[in-house]
Amino acid sequence: MTQSHRRISFCFAHTMVAAGLCLSAMAGQAFAQSTSSNMDGLKLSGDKPIQIESDNLEVHQQTNTANFNGNVKVVQGTTTMRSKDMVVKYKGQGAAVTSGDAKIDTIDVMGDVILNTATQQATADKGHFDMNSQIFTLTGNKVVLSEGGNVFVGCKLTVHMTSGEAKLDSCGKRVQIQLDPKSQQKQ
Q1: Using an 8 Å Cβ cutoff, are 123 and 35 in contact?
Q2: Burial call 160-169: b when 16+ CB within 10 Å, e when fewer
Q3: Which helix H or strand E contains 64, and what residues bound it?
Q4: What span, in angstroms and rounded, lies between the C-alpha atoms of 104 and 163?
Q5: Which terminus of the chain is more solvent-facing, meaning fewer CB atoms within 10 Å of its CB: N or C?
Q6: Cα 82 from Cα 121, distance rounded (Å)
Q7: E strand or H helix that includes residue 184
Q8: Which residues form the signal peptide (predicted)?
Q9: What value does the mean pLDDT take over residues 69-83?
Q10: What is the pLDDT of residues 87-104, one digit of tens each?
Q11: Which of 112, 98, 107, 114 is CA-nearest to residue 44?
């Protein structure tokens, strides 16, 4: 591995990428332009450490940002998020993301975003996590949420992390849902 491509591994415990990163099946009836449902499995895991890896890390104390660039991988418990880049904005004077005492304001992930849990996966072009409102949004030309044989496709997935309520928008197209009848028999 060359010097310029050395991976940076960064670990701290915080509600950070609590990045809500736990997805639950989105079941329910499809609507022509959007669909809403509960994602009750979406929980913040503030008590579990978060491990972040990237090719490069730039911390800008004066603007309270941390830029993770290249092959970003975030792991918290059984949840993994991958993307090309991630920008973390944090609050507070004197708080440092490197010491783990920063309060996260927003997290933006860009480029081939993939969220995985033990049973679900979501893919998108971009993601925005607002830790103040506890809302995360995945957007892109094709946002796909899947669990087993159940697949939901749209262009914008908005999840309220506190309630688990989710909405999948079509952005002028149609929301597409494929439900596997076998998944309903287990309930």
Answers
A1: no
A2: bbeebbbbbb
A3: none
A4: 20
A5: C
A6: 11
A7: helix 181-185
A8: 1-32
A9: 93
A10: 999 887 666 666 666 788
A11: 107
DSSP state of 148: T
Amino acid identity, position 4: S
For 75, the enclosing helix (H) or strand (E) is strand 65-76
Compute the distance between CA of residue 31 and CA of residue 70 in angstroms, rounded to an integer: 37
Which residue matches tokens 């978060």?
A: 50
The 3-state DSSP composition of the chain as helix, strand, coil percent (nearest 5) reads 5, 55, 35
CA dist 72 and 55 (Å) reads 7
Q: Which DSSP symbol is given to 27?
A: -
Tokens representing 44? 């913040």
- pLDDT level of residue 105 (50, 70, 90 thresholds): very high
The pLDDT value given to residue 163: 84
Q: Which residues make beta-bridge pairs with 57? A: 68
Instruction: Look at the alpha carbons of 16, 130, 45, 126 in this order and tell me if their dihedral is positive or negative.
Output: negative
